[in-house]
TrEMBL record:
Similarity remark: Belongs to the peptidase S26 family. IMP1 subfamily.
GO CC entries: mitochondrial inner membrane peptidase complex
Record's subcellular location: Mitochondrion inner membrane
Organism name: Lachnellula hyalina
Domain of life: Eukaryota
Name of the protein in question: Mitochondrial inner membrane protease subunit
UniProt gene name: imp1
Gene Ontology terms describing biological process: protein processing involved in protein targeting to mitochondrion; signal peptide processing
Amino acid sequence: MPLPQFLKHRHASAPLLILSTTLKTFFFTHLFLTHIYTLKATRGPSMLPTLEVFGDSVLISRYFRRGRDVKVGDVVSFDSVVVAGEEVIKRVVGMQGDFVVLQDEAGRGEKMLQVPEGHCWVVGDNLSASRDSRHFGPMPMAVIKGKVVAKVFPWSERRWMADGLRLVETY
């Protein structure tokens, strides 16, 4: 029994419909991961105790690319200036115009530096195991890829990220 004319037309366009849907899904996913949000697995000890050495995954908002609305206390993601092709996560502790104290691993201050225009000062929460602005200097805001807004895995430790800074009493 021959197919009715309207079914023949639909049957012939099925591959085009599948291709069109696949392309739309691909482009939407690309735009979403480039400009809205992305998930990233963390590794390394530089952000202990905020992030574990292995096994944590974080949600990164791409709205904050190139340093847009980033402030002191934010945890940001950027391309490593030490290892090409590696994306790292550090905490912002100084913005342009701020003065920062260069500290060694023991936390002793050595000298003071003003963060230049268009840059920020980033450090890992675990100073003794972090390669950060203390080693490579002020970081250009333009290399920031996004801001870590939540720890999403493991599920038992899922939480939104706060700025994580605490007041230190001085005597």
